[in-house]
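Supplementary notes for students who missed Thursday's class. We covered one full example, reproduced here. Read the sequence, then the structure, then the short commentary at the end.
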Amino acid sequence: MRALVTGGTGFIGSSIVRELLRANFEVRALVRRGSDTRNLDGLDIERVIGDITDPESLARCVRGCTHVFHAAALYSFWVTQPGLIEHVNVDGTRNVLEAALEAGVERVVYTSSVAALAVPQKGIPVDESTPVDPKEIIGAYKKSKYAAEQVALGFAKKGLPVVIVNPSFPVGPRDIKPTPTGQTILDFVNHRLPAYVDTGINVVDVEDVAQGHRLAAEKGRIGERYILGGKNMSMKEFLGILAKITGIAAPRVRLPYGPLLALSYVNAGWCRITKTTPRMTPDTIRMSRHYMYYDPTKAIEELGLPQTPPEVALQKAVNWFRKGFAAT
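Structure (token representation):
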């Protein structure tokens, strides 16, 4: 079996690559020219230059593959170029799935996100069947993931054997960007987190997410969605675990929502002038009002998704960040 992995240089994608190698796949990783490839260094894989926004390169890269794992995306809550997120996440997904359909691959696993699901209300966990109101989706990134998921569902109706997975908030090694959750861990480790926001997240080991992708290829039902999640916890609980792991005191100051939202607008305006990236945006602060809790029962029961304790996953993340991103 030969699998093409898009986004293989990234956090989730590089874990998928390793999981597939363990399962004896031949792995071909799509790499954009000039990408940071540290997450793939030393692996016995084929690297091919291409871009999900370039259909011609995709046709070449998919050729000869039995499986496609589409994990590439622009994961950002701050993009100044209008339409860029939609172009990469929606048009790029359409290009990948079209190439897979034309190549007649046996199975496609599309990496969506819990961002494409319903917005949790009053701390009640959302599952795959919870109705989504597109008007409640906050921000360009989340809107793009919802739209891309609709594209994937449309291809399933056309006959493409595609399974959709929705990772929650993964933690672990090789978070080189890092993700917003990873940035929180990094700030904590570096004593740069004096306060916290009253919110909640679903924490999952990134290696469990990678296994979930492989299991979705093996056992997932075509056209179905599976939440690849772990444990729901408040930010206070999350920081409490980090405190036990690191020996660093957790912040005790909880930031109020109103002033923080106002500050985020000021920060965003300043960053537009200075052409820098804000640490918080109005969209991320609005999202923080919701406890982002999700129910992974379907993936656990149908796929056998593992449930690594968050303490173990966070320990791996802390170890990696403390090594200065050197571990692979």
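Commentary. The chain has a mean pLDDT of 91. The radius of gyration is 19 Å. If anything here is unclear, bring it to office hours.
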